[in-house]
Amino acid sequence: MASHYDLEEQEHIDRLKAFWAAWGNLITWALVVVLAGVAAYNGWQYWERRQALQATALLDELEQAARGADADRVRRVWSDLQAQAPRTVQAQQGALWTARVLAEGGDVAEARAALQFAVERGRDPTLAALARLRLAALELDAGQPDAALRWLQAELPQPLQPWAADRRGDALQERGERDAAREAYRQAWAGLPVDSGYRAIVEAKLNALGIDPALSESKP
Hints:
Shape: elongated
Strand content: under 5%
Structural class: mainly alpha
Number of helices: 10
Mean pLDDT: 85
CATH architecture of one domain: Alpha Horseshoe
Largest sheet: none
CATH class of one domain: Mainly Alpha
Radius of gyration: 30 Å
Helix content: over 70%
């Protein structure tokens, strides 16, 4: 009986050897690939967490500098944020803070570059849309309505569309297209919340163009 089991066991061993001879290399390489993938994923997760922590610390420092209107410190931290964590949402937020401080200080070219960074390299579409609105405002301040309209061509999130319509109205009016400007302002006025203080400003722009939006809205 013992020899019978010995023969059976030997057959199993022989089958296993044959199977391993045929498929061993393939199985080994498959395991190597799987384990390498797991290691790479874990490494990527660790790298992303570490980068996010660094970016958050830098963003906090940048916000403090921005609130204090310390333009030199803003530039320095913004440079570090771009170098160390350029593809993070924190970098996109930092770009908006940086642009605000630099624009207020008269450094329009640097402000424009920071906003373009937020549009072109940012990951959050809402922050990119805000950057587009601010770029349009900078172009309007510079007397460049065509450039402003180009920044407003992209589809923006719905809550920001009234603000884009207002900017569009400003650009169209500057180009002398009064009818198109009226329509853009109408869209802005209708889209802004009733309790928004800015709605009164848009209404004043419409009044200057001979339109009372409240009266127009009440007509059947």
